Amino acid sequence: MSFMSDKLDIQQLREIWRQNGPDVKLAGEISNLLLNKKCFFELEMFLSTLPNTEKYKTEEALNRSRAYLEFQRKRYGNLYQLLKGNTFTDAEDLVKLWDAAHYEEERAKKRKPLTPLAKFRIRQRFTPPKTICPKGRQKSTLPKEATRILQSWLNDNLEKPYPDAETKERLQQLTQLSKTQVNTWFANARRRLNRNRQQEDTKKPTRESKPKPRSSLCTPTSPPPNACPWALGGIHELAPMTHGIPFLCQEMRHYYTHGIEPHTAAQILLNLHQN
């Protein structure tokens, strides 16, 4: 009925329904008016009084009002079931409602606001049903001039690609884009930058670590090829052969380095010492 108006108050709507109902089309108009007025309590009461018949269950206007009511009451499971189980025309607003419900569930789970990137990932994870989005999500293409302006700012700020609130507002004015569009563009751009940097890092050859040269102070001195093994020992190792005489111990090193047997060298030195 075309006589319905937003200026009608709740009492007038009740009277119209009492005089002209029950009628499924009238019920759809009344529910739509209550929804526009955001009278969710009255809307819920009105929907609960409708006949429980198939035509009232499948009426699109009523189901649209039911969907918004379920969202308002945070009954997201009922909302998803309602949107999947009924067909809607011109349902772009219901796709946004579908996304908003998933945002709210994720935000409540994480207990913090969602970033544009987080919302983007949620939209990718939860595809709207064909009953409200038969052709799937349509990729929105920004105007070339807007993209050029955003890309120019990004190229000048690659080290810190995070525009502050004032810069975003200025970019919004220059590009005529919404705040959400600007935030989403930068979130996607930063993700592309990180992916490209990771790919470049994987292409770089890995440097093999070369062993550090040992200090000459730590490198042991190699003995002469013909040196006796005892020539490298300490004085205490030579003491039994020289009766513990330190002087002879030092002299024996000289003989050892010339290939003389230790016992022979010790005897020579003892004889020299006694004489």
Automatic annotation (TrEMBL):
Keywords: DNA-binding, Homeobox, Nucleus. Residues 135-197 bind DNA. GO terms for cellular component: nucleus; transcription regulator complex. Residues 133-196 form the Homeobox domain. The keyword Glycoprotein does not apply. Residues 197-211 have a biased composition (Basic and acidic residues). This is Homeobox domain-containing protein.
